[in-house]
Design brief:
This protein has 613 residues and is of the alpha+beta class. The protein contains 14 helices and 28 strands. The strands form seven sheets. It has a nine-stranded antiparallel sheet. It has a five-stranded antiparallel sheet with strand order 5-4-10-16-14, covered by helices on one side.
């Protein structure tokens, strides 16, 4: 794998997750899960008009990217001089197929001979070892494979040239030299690349040429090639229309209505969060941009906290089946002594971790589960998950000592070990939710003990965490010395857990203190002296403050914060952070947590503004 991945657009279907960079090149392609493994180093497309031949991601090309309204179909308009190419990039809704459809326009005065090229550099299973590629002459397909991973690439017309080659030899030469050197070669092994070229013929002035390229995934060669044969025999217009209609059908079910201003990204948020949902039920934080952990710990994992907020947002919008699937996934995921681990792969196996348990994750999942049941009336789910609920609640109860303090753990930012205010609120909410759920279905023998532990947390909190003018974020595990660093996670005491009443004088004083210390460029810093990516305003922190403002009736202030966040979305995709100097997206994008908090704010802002009045 190479280092950083530039994320400009994302496409997928719950089994496929692809990332497109600002040049329109595909920079990662995960299948059969949205998290792992990525099989692609790069997929590029080239263009020839009889005068010059170059890659559309190369010098001189300008690209305008957008999503087809109400769908996860990317539309990329590429221009260079008089050349204009429009492509649609998407995954079929229920099939393991990625589609790249092209329209080439002749804006010149004479007829132009046009060719479109494909070049794929595959490292299947994220390794340059033991890959293979061959050109299947019978099916007119370039097939990349390793083990039981097969990728068949072909067009809806016959290819005029093919090439198979090694990518790790003669590195001083570029892609085109490698493709040209391998023309007519049907096989390559190792770190491989494959090339196809299609002749679209001569396009008259004002005319256009079309081709659709399909990449079909399968566990066997026959499966992948058969899927390709099926797609190339169908109408490209029908395939594109089906993908667009699938997205529009999905967003039409939302209970959170879009409006002309603040709600303009409701549909995009729902569609984006959908892309992060794996078919098995896991919900990842974001598409990966740092697979080698160069500047972060990576983002293509399932965190109980992030995913619970995303599931909650889906519940608010009425997509209860997605949330249900996630909570069932949580019930089956591996746990340590009943507690959820830091993060997971989408198959429920623990992901790479660097710290202690984060108690807030188990608490937030139990809290979110109760919200799901309340909104969906899915009480059968409580019965189905009762053993897991009891196990997790018992485990949380054991983390509270006789003083009413949590055992030390890692904070929600995954940076420091201590006794955290936010974690306390989440554990309290989780215990209360577990008690109410289990009592509801008649298995209440544990309820009393969980309620007692929750009360102990509540009774002790002000004694340890109130420091005269505001709450503090953390206590030293050994000395109980408070960490008075202003931290936006303190907003979680009020929203969403209601551990502290949002309208209490102490909560109001704390929020006023946080605003005074953390406001930056219109947004809110995560915490004071944050060094991650230089310390920038976070979308999550800003929307957290907006949620609080909406909760206490200060709607105009909340709306202003939401508007700031929308200003820095790209194609409607919300990043983790906004650079304090350059005003551009920083770190992961799109971040599911950001989109979830956006929908949560809109839910709290229901009224004239949300309904566009």
């Amino acid at each position: 794998m190479r280092g950083m991945i530039s994320v400009a657009g994302v496409f997928g279907n719950g089994g496929i997750l692809g990332v497109v960079d600002e040049n329109g090149d595909v920079r990662s392609f995960s299948w059969p899960r949205v998290d792992f493994p990525n099989h692609v180093e790069v997929i590029k497309f080239g263009f020839s008009d009889g005068v010059s031949r170059d890659w559309m991601g190369g010098w001189g090309w300008r690209h305008e990217m957008s999503y087809v309204n109400g769908s996860n179909v990317l539309r990329i308009v590429s221009r260079k001089g008089r050349r204009k190419v429009v492509r649609h990039v998407f995954a079929l809704p229920d099939e393991d197929v990625a589609v790249f459809s092209f329209e080439v326009f002749n804006r010149g005065l004479g007829s132009v001979p046009v060719e479109v090229e494909f070049l794929g550099h595959f490292r299947i299973l994220e390794s340059k070892l033991s890959n293979a590629v061959f050109y299947d002459e019978v099916h007119d397909a370039m097939v990349f494979y390793k083990g039981n991973y097969y990728f068949a690439v072909g067009g809806d017309r016959s290819a005029n040239a093919y090439s198979c080659f090694r990518m790790d030899r003669m590195r001083i030469f570029g892609f085109r030299w490698r493709a040209r050197r391998g023309v007519g070669r049907r096989y390559a092994l190792g770190d491989v690349g494959g090339y196809l070229k299609w002749d679209l013929g001569s396009i008259p002035p004002g005319g256009r040429g079309e081709i659709s390229v399909y990449m079909c995934c399968g566990k066997t060669m026959n499966e992948a090639v058969s899927l390709l044969n099926d797609k190339t025999s169908r109408s490209p217009e029908e395939i594109l229309r089906g993908a667009v209609e699938d997205g529009r059908s999905f967003v039409s079910k939302s209970k959170i209505p879009p409006s002309s201003r603040l709600g303009r990204e409701v549909e995009r948020s729902l569609l984006t969060m959908r892309l992060l949902c794996d078919r098995r039920g896991g919900i990842i934080a974001a598409p990966e941009f740092d697979p080698e952990f160069r500047v972060s710990g990576g983002y293509r994992y399932v965190w109980g906290r992030d995913a619970a907020f995303i599931a909650y947002a889906f519940d608010l919008a009425g997509y209860h089946e997605i949330a249900r699937k996630f909570y069932l996934w949580c019930g089956a995921a591996q746990r340590k002594g009943g507690l959820l681990l830091q993060r997971y792969w989408c198959d429920g196996v623990p992901g790479p971790c660097w710290g202690d348990l984060q108690l807030d994750e188990t608490g937030s999942v139990l809290w979110g589960l109760e919200q799901h049941v309340k909104m969906s009336d899915d009480y059968d789910l409580i019965k189905e998950m009762a053993p897991a609920i009891v196990e997790m609640a018992d485990a949380l109860a054991r983390t509270v000592d006789v003083r009413g303090l949590l055992q030390p753990c890692l904070d929600l930012w995954e940076e420091r070990r201590g006794i955290h205010a936010y974690s306390t609120a989440a554990v309290y909410a989780g215990l209360r939710s577990a008690a109410r759920m289990i009592e509801e279905v008649g298995f209440g023998d544990k309820v009393g003990s969980w309620e007692m532990v929750a009360k102990r947390l509540k009774d002790a909190f002000d004694r340890f965490f109130w420091r005269g003018r505001h709450y503090v974020r953390c206590l030293n595990p050994k000395t109980l010395r408070p960490d008075v660093t202003p931290d936006s996670s303190l907003l979680g005491l009020a929203v969403p857990y209601k551990f502290i009443s949002p309208t209490s004088s102490r909560m109001k004083a704390t929020v006023e203190w946080l605003e005074g210390k953390l406001k930056s460029k219109g947004g809110l810093l995560r915490y004071k002296r944050d060094r991650y990516f230089g310390g920038n305003p976070w979308i999550v922190s800003t929307l957290w403050l907006a949620s609080y403002k909406a909760e206490v009736g200060r709607k105009e202030e909340a709306e202003k914060l939401v508007e700031w966040c929308l200003t820095y979305s790209n194609l409607g995709l919300m990043p983790e952070q906004v650079h304090k100097g350059r005003g551009e997206a920083v770190s992961a994008m799109p971040l599911g947590w950001s989109h979830a908090f956006y929908l949560m704010v809109l839910d709290r802002l229901k009224g004239d503004e949300l309904n566009g009045k």
